[in-house]
Amino acid sequence: MEDMIRLEHISKDFDQRAVLQDVTLSIGQNETIALIGANGSGKSTLLRIICGLIRPSSGKIHSTLDKEMRISYVPERFPKIRLTPQEYLLSMGRIQGLNKDFLNRRIKELMEQFGLTEARNKRMNLFSKGMLQKVNIMQAVLAQPDLLVLDEPLSGLDAASQQDLLRLLQEMKRQNITMILTCHESILLNELADRVISLQQGRVVLNNIQGQKSYVIIHFKLPHDVSTLSMEQLGGAEKLEKVDGTYRLHVESEFSDKALLTILNSSGSVCSVTPAEHKQWIASDSFIS
Ligand SMILES: Nc1ncnc2c1ncn2[C@@H]1O[C@H](COP(=O)(O)OP(=O)(O)OP(=O)(O)O)[C@@H](O)[C@H]1O
């Protein structure tokens, strides 16, 4: 897969506090990347740097496209404005310099695809969170972006709306839109992402291609006993050891994102994620349960 954009040694300080540290990664053409990490680990900051909304303190971003890259951003929050989606999308399209005839056709097509045709002339201050999130994504794909950047696209939505949005994002993936998104939901990791990148205190601790057979050791700390974690949530874990009050979880890479989410959602902190040879532990002992 060819790289579309490459970030090299990106760091960002806010008020002399390092929020991102030496982040190097690339995004391939047509790839979908999920960025995970605890609250405050720097995910949104990284997305905003990729979109050009803020500048890194150091490091470089290279585009490999031979034209100017069209990057669209879907922010986490979408305000409840009094416009109808039709009015809003028309004005967003005009701001983007899109032709009126193209825009009318495209809005009609998107309304059908997103199931909002009946609501197109209703005021958005009466919309549910799921409906608002659909309009939020529609504004970003009015003109086909090269890269779609989404900050927590399923956050605050009920299970049915999450499934609905997942289906739409899968449809965009089928249309070969390259995506990078932040998330706390395992359905996006399991059913959308090609690759999971995990940030811990502003550093990349895991850069993992989904479905590739390899193994990692996650070294982590918990503020409470590990028995409070459900082993089902740590699915794919092969061995868990306790070493000097910290834990080492041996897990197949395919399941490591789920294990990392479980640890982070349990207020744990990840010290390191290192690649491992399966043979390194398969013959040996303990599993704490
Ligand atoms: N403009 C800013 N000025 C100062 N500090 C900032 C600014 N933007 C972000 N930060 C700080 O940078 C850190 C990382 O924030 P960021 O929003 O990138 O984290 P995050 O991983 O997206 O968190 P969450 O999952 O809660 O959205 C936080 O401590 C935040 O307070």
Verbal overview:
This protein has 289 residues and is of the alpha/beta class. The chain has helices spanning 43-51, 85-95, 100-113, 129-140, 159-174, 186-191, 253-265, 279-282; strands spanning 3-14, 17-28, 32-37, 58-63, 71-74, 147-151, 178-182, 195-200, 203-209, 215-221, 237-243, 246-252, 269-276. A six-stranded mixed sheet has the order 5-6-7-3-8-9, with helices on both faces. β1 and β2 (17-28) form a beta hairpin. Residues 278-289 have low confidence and may be disordered. Bound molecules: adenosine-5'-triphosphate. Adenosine-5'-triphosphate binds at residues 14-15, 19, 37, 39-45. Adenosine-5'-triphosphate (ATP) binds at residues 14-15, 19, 37, 39-45.
CATH homologous superfamily assignment of the largest domain: P-loop containing nucleotide triphosphate hydrolases
Shape: globular
Unique bound compounds: adenosine-5'-triphosphate
Number of domains: 2
Helix/strand order = EEEHEEHHHEHEHEEEEEHEH
Q: What is the makeup of the main sheet? A: 6 strands, mixed
Percentage of residues in DSSP E strands? 25-35%
Gyration radius (Cα, Å) is 21 Å
CATH architecture of the largest domain: 3-Layer(aba) Sandwich
Question: How many strands in all?
Answer: 13
As residue ranges, the low-confidence spans are: 278-289
Decide which structural class fits the backbone: alpha/beta
Protein name: ABC transporter domain-containing protein
Domain ABC transporter: 5-226
GO molecular function: ATP binding; ATP hydrolysis activity
Keywords: ATP-binding, Nucleotide-binding, Transport
